[in-house]
Write a structure and sequence with these properties.
The chain is mostly helical and about 160 residues long. The protein folds into 2 domains: about 60 residues, no CATH class; about 80 residues, no CATH class. Helices cover about 50% and strands about 0% of the residues. Helix 3 packs antiparallel against helix 6. It is elongated, with a radius of gyration of 22 Å. The chain starts with a helix and ends in a 14-residue tail after the last helix.
Length: about 160
């Protein structure tokens, strides 16, 4: 058994997926063993973080990507740039504050909710997005267990704020 095969086998056994699938080419310049190992481990961490973010994004059920940078405060004067920055900072999540977004149709409530959800996913929070319009027509709005039965809320969401 050659060294590369043995490295792949060890990496699979340690569940280092990225390292197990790495192509071991000749390097353009010599590096120390420590430097090479550091680079391999850094690549593994980046791979895992990317995979975790994809998983959180899928679980979030966000219908589309909306960002704070796309929100037009010139058109929508009900919220200021400072308030958007406060929402985008997500500090209120760590303080476990509630956020209620209300207003007439077409005022950007869903845009803000999606921007908050997308930013939270990118930051490492677990998110779940659901339209009240679709859910209130199909289920009893006070029955949270109905959402769980439908598979809309995974058991890993024991409390509303997770990182």
């Amino acid at each position: 058994m050659n060294d590369v095969t043995l490295i792949r086998q060890y990496a699979k056994q340690l569940r280092l997926t990225n390292l197990a699938n790495k192509t071991f080419d000749f390097l353009s310049e010599p590096v120390s063993n420590e430097e090479y190992l550091k680079d391999c481990l850094h690549e593994e961490i980046m791979y895992r973080e990317g995979k975790a973010m994809l998983h959180r994004t899928k679980k979030a059920c966000l219908p589309t990507y909306k960002g704070f940078e796309d929100f037009d405060t010139d058109f929508q004067t009900g919220i200021t740039d400072w308030q958007l920055k406060q929402l985008a900072g997500l500090n209120w999540l760590d303080g476990i504050y509630n956020l209620i977004i209300i207003g007439p149709p077409g005022t950007g409530k869903t845009h803000l909710a999606l921007a908050i959800g997308n930013k939270a996913v990118e930051t490492g929070y677990k998110v779940f997005f659901s339209s009240m319009d679709s859910d209130t027509h199909t289920e009893d709005p006070g029955d949270f267990t109905a959402f769980r039965r439908k598979g809309k809320v995974d058991k890993e969401f024991g409390s509303p704020y997770h990182r």
